[in-house]
Design goal:
The complex is a heterodimer of chains A (114) and B (109). Chain A has 114 residues and is mainly beta. Chain A has no helices and 11 strands. Chain B is an all-beta fold and 109 residues long. At the A-B interface, β5 and β10 of A face β3 and β4 of B.
Chain lengths: 114, 109
Amino acid sequence: DAGVIQSPRHEVTEMGQEVTLRCKPISGHNSLFWYRQTMMRGLELLIYFNNNVPIDDSGMPEDRFSAKMPNASFSTLKIQPSEPRDSAVYFCASSLTRDREELFFGEGSRLTVL
Amino acid sequence: DAKTTQPTSMDCAEGRAANLPCNHSTISGNEYVYWYRQIHSQGPQYIIHGLKNNETNEMASLIITEDRKSSTLILPHATLRDTAVYYCIVRAYGQNFVFGPGTRLSVLP
């Protein structure tokens, strides 16, 4: 199994631009999570999906952030417009079910907004 | 808010056991103790979890006190590749994983 695959690994963009981060969960996993990691706030849960349906988006910082999961093998996290304070590493994780103990994380997407 | 308290950092000599403590004095009866670690520039990796009995797998051992208010993760023979941030998390099934600042373990040659 290839594990959770995220792209791009690194993105540098200018303030105001749209950013789209992509995630392919492990095949057969029914839950998908988006986390953000910064030095100041550590790892924060942004949103999670169960069976492609968003269940809890209370961690999404503001309306500039949106996430979709059109099918079981693909999810996107979009920031529009991006701001310098959005600079962080964004991780996608998947698990077999919502209750499963083991989250499998991707390698992360490092976003820098200038 | 994270429900656990961990030391900010620890050192361990290569080849020796690394014992990472975690306090979780407000743990509820249905909450498990989980450990993850994050090696630099990688995503967090699951290590082990337990409810009240001690657990062991190929990576580590988890010792939970009888009152469940604290636990210790043991890496029996630490290697340089075990240098990472270790997160102790308490969570009931169905709840979100809330990551605190963790313990930065440095394994020294």
